[in-house]
Design goal:
This is L-lysine 2,3-aminomutase. It comes from Desulfovibrio subterraneus. [4Fe-4S] cluster binds at residues 177, 181, 184. Helix content is 27%, strand content 16%. It is of the alpha/beta class and 445 residues long. The protein folds into 3 domains: 18-139, no CATH class; 153-392, Aldolase class I (TIM Barrel, Alpha-Beta Barrel); 398-438, no CATH class. The chain has a 9-stranded mixed β-sheet. A 3-stranded antiparallel β-sheet has the order 12-13-14, with no helix packed on it. Strands 1-2 form a two-stranded antiparallel ribbon. Helix 9 packs parallel to helix 11 (266-273). The longest helix is centred in the middle third of the chain and has 16 residues, at 196-211. The chain binds iron/sulfur cluster.
Amino acid sequence: MSSNIAEIEQSPMEPPSLLGVQNHSVYSDISFPVGMRFAVEKELPPAFAISERSDAFRRRFYPEVNLKTWCDWHWQYANRITSLEQLGTMLSLSPDELDAGTGLAALPFAVTPYYAAQFDPANPADPLRRTMVPTTAEWDLNPGESADPLGEDGHSPVPGLVHRYPDRVLFLATDACSAYCRYCTRSRRVGKPGSTSTVRKRWPAAIEYIENHPEVRDVLISGGDPLTMSDAALDHLLSRLRRIPHIEIIRIGSKAPIVMPQRITPSLLRVLRRYHPLLMSIHCTHPGELTPEATEALGRLADAGIPLGSQTVLLKGINDDVPTMTKLMQGLLKTRVRPYYLYHCDPVQGSAHFRTHIFKGVDIVRGMRGHTTGYAIPTYVVDAPGGGGKIPLMPDYVQGYDGEDLVLRNYEGNLYRSYDPAAPAAHECGDCGKGCSGCNGGSSC
Ligand code: SF4
């Protein structure tokens, strides 16, 4: 393996556009039976799971692409659908989606053929489609919004590195993604043309900064999506970080297992296995993303001993109700992904149509607690604008003290008393003037 970043190249891509795309405006007449099959055409070795739905899409719009090629992440990445004109040959675009193609949005449009296959071709309100297909609402700058809502640039000691918390850093290893989420917090920087070589030039200074800061024990590699990089580039970066004695854990944040699950290849897993303890945060938004393909990708990562956590953004009309969120979190657990964070949608420019009221997330978590296993309940956080970090918001189950009893409300709304004579708030406080019976445990005093 080379130690020189400049020598690292992306893995060779298949030539783009192997096929002519047929001009069908809709394919809603196709029925997509639920189920899965494997790429087992006689002359080809099994490569990856492919659902009946994905396979029907492949046969209709990419008839010259065989199963092996479809299951190759290089092909998926090189053949991303990057124009609404092309997407319009595969599904019926709404007038607003068509208009959005004429305006300037901060974020480019791109989606893998695999992920496009999961869209409802006839319904612009389809949750997966809404997260990826631009609309004119993105043109608006709404109150409270900005290009860098988390103030990352102000906490960046060297380009491509964010140091906001005492013991960990965010390493922005790439600005590329295999698909661009319309609510992306980093829409100011991701997907800009020709940025790969520029980004790689930032790595040495970022690594040197980490080497010179022994208080940093945890590096989160993000971007962009680090799994758009080649195995060789990842191997190089991980090996450099692992050589730093004070780095205890390395984390990777990625949506690739969801939008390009074919990326989780045996050779990638061989690389990742070398750098334990290595954890991965999976960006997943809706239960419809947990396809047979995504399930296989996540299973492969889990089998490689990589602890998996989920990161989900709360999105209006997409996952902002208890049944959808519960189904998503239970589905993630079934694929061995531990629900981790549920984020209030950051106020990035043009995202108001995705943002719920802040307390919607509290209500959803409250609606889940007690009704499903505790492992399935994520921590709801607001990432404080300006760089204050993640602030958890939880339902309040504490009603206050009554004498030496702490009064608690359970998930059904029933009140219970827990004898708690040793609590300092019950005996020593009184500054609030309400006496112990009005105290909520100290926070209001
Ligand atoms: S995968 Fe992550 S970095 Fe890429 S567009 Fe989506 S939210 Fe942004």
